[in-house]
Amino acid sequence: MALAEDFGSTRGQISACPACVAVPAAERIAALRADRAGRIILSLPNAGGAQSISTVEAAIQAVPGVISARVNLTQKRVSVEAMPSVTAAMLIDLLAIQGQEAHELDPGLLSSTETDRQGRELLMRLGVAFFSMMNVMLLSVAVWSGAEDATRDLFHWISGAIALPTVIFAGQPFFKSAWASLRQGKLGMDVPISLALILASSISVYETWMSGHHAYFDAAVMLAFFLLLGRYLDHRTRAVARSAAEELAALEVPRAILLIDGTEIETPIAEIHPGDTVLVRPGARMPVDGVVLHGASELDRSLLTGESLPVQAGQGTVVSAGEVNLTGPLTVQVTAAGKDSSLHRMADLVAVAEGAKTRYTSLADRAASLYSPLVHILSFSAFGYWMWATGGDLRYAINISAAVLIITCPCALGLAVPAVITSASGRLFRKGLLIKHGTALERLAEVDTVVFDKTGTLTLGMPHPVALADQSQEAVAVAAALAAGSSHPLARALAEGAKAAGIACAQVTDIREVPGQGIEGRFHGNRVRLGRADWCGAEPVAATATYLSLGSATHAFQFTDRLRPGAEQAVAALKAAGMQVELLSGDAPAPVRDLADRLGITNWQAGVLPTEKAARVAELSAQGRKVLMVGDGLNDTAALAAAHVSISPASALDAARVASDIVLLGQDIAPIADAVRISRQATRRMIENFLISGGYNIVAVPLALVGLATPLAAALAMSLSSITVSLNAMRLK
After folding, report:
1. Domain boundary residue, one of 535, 562, 589
2. 454 and 569 in one domain?
3. Of 90, 696, 169, 689, nearest to 409 (Cα)?
C-alpha cells in the first residue's frame, strides 16, 4: 500500500509540471539511444563452411543501418557494426529465417577471451627457446666431435651469443615468479629453476672465457624450453576453460525495456536505477527486483527457489531478478538492479566460500614446499664440501654445485601436474565437462559425498504429461489447440505431448490468453477453457496438473518433471563407487519424494532454503566429508561455493556457473560419475609422476654429488625425466 501511495505521489509531482519533466525525459531517451550505438556480437553455434560465412554476412549487411558484418568461423561468431536503430533481436530473427541459429553475446564479457596476451607471450618465448635450442645443439655436435682449441672456443662463443639472450628472454616468467617468492620470504618452485638457469649460463661464460673444454649453453637453453613447455600446457588448460566459461556467461546479456513517458527503450541493466519503470514481456526473464504496478501473469521461480510450479503475480507482487514471466506483460517499478539485485545477494557468501577453495594447496605446491629447500641444501652442501676437499678449487666446486642444481631442477615436477591436467581436461571436455578451476580435478578425486539439487539438475525443469492415452482423444485435441497459443510451461508440455502421441489439434477459434488464469477459445460454438482448476470449474488433484473445461465435463492433465538424461546412471554409478548421495530441493515434498524413490536416494529434504542448503554442506564438511555439490539455481549458489568441489549445468543461472568449478556442457548428467573416476585416475598419474621424478633424483643426485655428472649430463638426464613424465600423463587419453 505504501508503495502504491509513493508511486501515486510521484505521478502527482510529474503532472504538476509537464514541461519540467518532458525535457529531461527526452534528453535521457536520446542519451540512452546514443550510448547503445556500436558493436553487436552474435554466437553462431552451427556455422560452418565458406558458404555459411557469405550467407550470414550478406543477410546482415542488407539490413538498413548495418555498417559492417564480419564472421569469425573459428570462434563461430559474427561481429556487427551498426547504428542504434539495429538491435540484436532483429538480427537473430533475420538469421533464423536463413536457417542459422544465433545468440547475442555481451562484448564486455569476451574481452579477455579475445586478448589472451599472457598465452601469446608464453608461446612466443617457447618458440624462441626451441629455435635457440636446436641451433645451440647443432653447434655442440661440432664440439662433441672433437673440435679443440680456437675452433672449440669459437663454437662456444657463438653458442653463448645465441643462448644468453634466449635465457634472459625465455626465462622471464620464472625470474619474475622467483623474485616475487623471495620478497615474500618463500622458496617457491621457480627459485631453484631460476638459479639453475643463471648458474648454467654463468658457468658456461666462465668456461668459455677460460678456454675450458666444456660449456653448458645447450643445457641452459634446454632447461628453459622444457620448463616453458610445462608452463604453457598449464596456461592453455586454464585458458580454454576460462574462454568457454566466459562465452557461456556472455550468452546472458542483461537488458531491460525501460519505460519513459510511455516510450519503450531497450537499456543495459547498468543504466537502470531504483524508481525506474520497466516492461517485462511474456517469456522474458525478470531483469530487476521490483514490485508489479500493472498486469497479471504467472512466474516461474524454479531457478531461484527450486519450486517447479509457477506462481501467480499481479499488482503489488514482489518480483526478483531471474524469475521468468510466463503469461502476461508486467509493468514493474524497480527496487534494485544490477549488482544490488537478488541475483547478487549471495555474493558475500560466495566470496567467503571461494576464499576457502583458494587456500586449498595443490599437489604440485605441496611437493614444491618440501622439494625446493632440499634442492638448495644439497647444492650448497656440495659446493662447501668440494671447496674443502679440493683445497679451494672454486671452478670445480661451482661445476659440481651447478650439476646438482640442474639435475635436481624441478622440471619434471613442473610438468607433472600441467601435463596430467591437460590430458584429463581434454578427455572430460570430450565427455561434455568443462574444468574451470586449477585444483578442481584434485579436489574431485577426494569426494566421498554428493549433494544434488532437483529442479534443473536431476530434472530438466520441464514438465512432461502423463497418461495422455487414458484421456479422451477429443479432450486432448482441444487442450492441445488451446495450449499451442501459450508460453506457459505446462501448456507447452501438453502441446508437445499431444504431438508426440500423434494427436492433431482440434479446430478451436477465438483463442485468447487470460493472464494468471489460462487460455480460452470456442469449440463447436461453445466456450472451452484450459488453465487453473477454479477458473475451469474443476476439482483440483494432488499432483501437478492443468484443467480443461469442455462442455459440461472437466478433465485434469497431470504432469511429472522430465528426468535429466543420465540421472539414473549417474546416481547408480556414484552409489556403486561407495559415495553417500543426498537430494536437497526447495520444491514441495511430494515431487521430491517421488524423484528420490525413482532414483533410489534415501537421504532427501524438501522445502530447503538457500541458506539451509549451504548450512547442510557446511555440516557435512565439519563431519570430515568431502562434498561434491551439483546445482543450477540462485538457491544453490552459496552451497556450490561452500562445497569441496562443485558442478553446474551450462543451462544454470550465471551466478551458479560462476560459483562452480566444473560446467556440464550437455543435458546428459551421466558424465559426472565419469568425472569422479577420471579425476581419481588423474591424481594417481600425478603421484606417479612425482615418484618418477623422485626416483630419477635418487639415482642421479648421488652421481652429481660425487662429481660423476657434468652440468650437460645433468641437463640431458633432466630432459629424459621430463619426457617420461609427459608420456605417463598422456596415458590418460
Report:
1. 562
2. yes
3. 696
Q: Give the residue among 502, 450, 449, 512 at the shortest CA–CA distance from 482.
A: 512
* Residues 604, 485 share a domain: no
Same domain, 613 and 468: no
CA 221, distance to chain mean position in Å, is 36
- Same domain, residue pair 481 and 623: no
pLDDT at residue 395 tops 70: yes
From 106, 153, 190, 453, active-site residue: 453
pTM of the model: 0.58
Cβ-contact 321, 346 below 8 angstroms: no
Angle between helices 149-170 and 217-250 (to 10 degrees): 20
* 305 Cβ contact partners less than 8 Å away, ≥ 6 residues apart: 586, 633, 635
Q: Domain containing 99 — which CATH number?
A: 3.30.70.100
DSSP code of residue 719: H
Residues 536, 664 within the same domain: no
Q: Is residue 707 part of a domain?
A: no
**609 in a domain, yes or no?**
yes
674 is catalytic: no
Query: Quick one: residue 255, left, alpha or beta (phi over 0 = left, psi -120 to 50 = alpha)?
Result: beta
Sequence-ordered list of residues with C-beta below 8 angstroms from that of 27, at least 6 positions apart, any chain: none
Q: For the segment 14-43, what is each residue's pLDDT rounded down to a tens digit?
A: 333 433 444 455 555 555 444 445 678 887
Render pLDDT for 563-616 as a digit per residue (tens, 0 to 9): 888 999 999 999 998 899 999 988 778 788 888 998 999 999 988 887 888 899
d(CA 201, CA 216): 7
Question: What pLDDT score was predicted for residue 8?
Answer: 34
Q: What is the pLDDT of residue 278?
A: 92
For residues 579 and 635, membership in a common domain is answered with yes
Domain holding 520: CATH number? 3.40.1110.10
> 274 is written with which cell numbers?
531504483
* pLDDT at residue 673 tops 60: yes
603: containing domain? 434-460+565-680
Contact status, residue 140 vs residue 185, Cβ threshold 8 Å: no
Evaluate whether 247 touches 103 at the Cβ level (below 8 Å).
Answer: no
Helix axes 711-730, 411-430, angle to 10 degrees: 20
Q: Is 499 a member of any domain? A: yes
Provide the number of structural domains found in the chain: 3
Q: Which residue has the cell 546479456?
A: 253
* 321 vs 32: CA distance, rounded Å: 22
Mean pLDDT within 684-708 = 79
What pLDDT, in 10s, does the model give residues 348-358?
Answer: 444 444 444 44
Looking at 58, 81, 105, the residue that finishes a domain is 105
Mean pLDDT confidence for 213-218: 75
Question: pLDDT tens for residues 169-193?
Answer: 988 888 888 888 788 777 666 777 7
Q: What is the pLDDT of residue 532?
A: 85
Q: For the chain, first and last CA: distance in Å?
A: 64
User: Does residue 668 sit within a domain?
Assistant: yes
Cβ contact 604:597 at 8 Å: no
Residue type, 241: A
List the CATH number of the domain containing 624: 3.40.50.1000
The residue whose grid cell reads 580454454 is 240
